[in-house]
Amino acid sequence: MNRVTDWHIMGAIALAGLAGPLLLPGLATQIAFLWLMVVFALTWDMLGGRMGYNSFGNIVFFGIGCYAAAVVQRDMGLPYFEGLALGLLAGTVCAVLAAIVFGAAMLGIRGHYFAIGTLGLGIAAGEVAAGWDYVGAGSGMALPLYPGELGQREIFFCYSLFALAAVCFLVFRWLYGTRFGLALNAIRDDHDKADAMGLRTTPIKIFAWALSAFFLAISGGLAANMIGFIDPRDVAFAGATFGVWMVLMAILGGKGTLWGPVLGAFVFHVTQELFWTYLLGWQRVALGFLIVVIVVFFPQGIMGWLAERRARTEAGS
Question: How far is CA 25 from CA 35, 153, 154, 159, in A?
């Protein structure tokens, strides 16, 4: 995709992100979740697509962001927006530190061992939160009420998550054009050769995971406040939903590409909303079928499929 087209697409998405909540205020929550899905897909793709480390534990950092923001807002006694800002800061610090600690321990293993290890990490985090009375244990945790008028909360968090998704995309877009992006690809293509060439692979991998944790923690704090309640297994550490969806959206759009995770998030979220609207009672069956279709028929993703079609067309002409 050339740079002119790139900027046109970004401009169209920016216009839609700014105008959407105003033109469709009744869909502000669904639009906000769309931007959350974009953050999920982008952050997973940095490891799974660019670096070749398929993580099922990224949901841990989202959950840390949820709980850190909630605890700060509950215990500090600050006004809503000051408490939210401080909670987001606390969440990012905790999540980044967790990524550094877990990364140092786990990023030395590769392949399916790493995937299984991160899966266990997400499950363990959910169980710890569900048994910890300080954060409400299995009963969950309520967040402070948004101080604005009815309907303003959804619009506020819609714009907040849109801004987060935009910053995440632009930061990753810049990084992928630097030597850091080349290093990620080198690790994915041949880890041993990357080591032999003198790349400090372990710090690079830890930094990539910590950067993903940074954005996931902010998204967790914002999403928890938008929902208004944190359930340890169904919201904060929802590995069976959010954790799996991260992977699926990146694969659907085309992992390892700039626009693939964004496209995958759009297609997946819109399809999921249609299932919940028109297939009520069968929505999970339909979603499971969609997952099978993605894995079987789109292993290279939509971007990979389009590139293949374009190559065939050019070869034929």
Answer: 15, 11, 8, 12
